[in-house]
Amino acid sequence: MYKPDTKGTKMQPPHPDIAEVVLTPGQIEEIVQALGARITQDYEDTQPLLVCILKGASPFMSDLMRSIALDIDIDFMSVSSYGNATTTSGTVKILKDLDTPIKDRDVIIVEDIVDSGLTLARLTAELAKREPRSIEIATFLLKDVQAPRKVDIKPRYAGFTIDNRFVVGFGLDYAEKYRNLPYVGVLKREVYENNK
């Protein structure tokens, strides 16, 4: 697991709804570059297909694919498991499927955060039916949950482990807000408790 420089870079004061900045823009860049270098090394003789999970993973996908020094293909899927909640509902809906056939392809699912693992378990099982050569997961954040995850998901590429707090920014949202923040921050509890 990559441990970024804690100094990071200078940035503007955080959004008033943010209690604490966890990762600065500079730290995010370091993490993504390190993941891109690993993928470049691991797939040097292939042309992997990166599958971005919309909407949250789109900033990560954009930065990650530019840090991979290989020929790659990209595609997108949209799934829903949170709605406007801060925890997954356990029900995963595929809203947009792939346009690209993946039979005999090396597939890397690009996700913003792994929390319960339910979403990725469902996706991985669905994509495995299509007979790819391999399926791996690249996640920007891996949530360090105290209890065992409901499913056994072990991303091959994980950028940063966070504790069990609700974070937003760099694609991560609450009720479709905060995705455009250039850092990752902890959302103040009163923001989502007032909306229950």
Backbone shape: globular
From the N-terminal CA to the C-terminal CA, the straight-line distance is 35 Å
Mean pLDDT across residues? 87
What low-confidence regions span 5 or more consecutive residues with pLDDT below 50? 1-6
- Please compute the radius of gyration using only Cα atoms: 16 Å
Describe the protein in words.
- It is a single chain.
- The model is unreliable at 1-6 (pLDDT under 50).
- It is built from 4 helices and 9 strands, in the order βαβαβββαββββα.
- The chain has a 6-stranded mixed beta sheet with strand order 4-3-2-5-6-7, sandwiched between helices. Strands 1-9-8 form a 3-stranded antiparallel beta sheet.
- 22% of the residues lie in helices and 28% in strands.
- The longest helix has 18 residues, at 25-42.
- 32% of the residues are buried.
- It is an alpha/beta fold and 196 residues long.
- The radius of gyration is 16 Å and the shape is globular.
Structure keywords:
196 residues, alpha/beta, six-stranded mixed β-sheet, three-stranded antiparallel β-sheet, 4 helices, disordered N terminus
Reconstruct the topology from this structure.
Elements: E1 18-23, H1 25-42, E2 49-54, H2 58-66, E3 73-80, E4 93-96, E5 106-114, H3 118-128, E6 134-143, E7 157-162, E8 167-168, E9 184-187, H4 189-193
Parallel strand pairs: 2-3, 2-5, 5-6, 6-7
Antiparallel strand pairs: 1-9, 3-4, 8-9
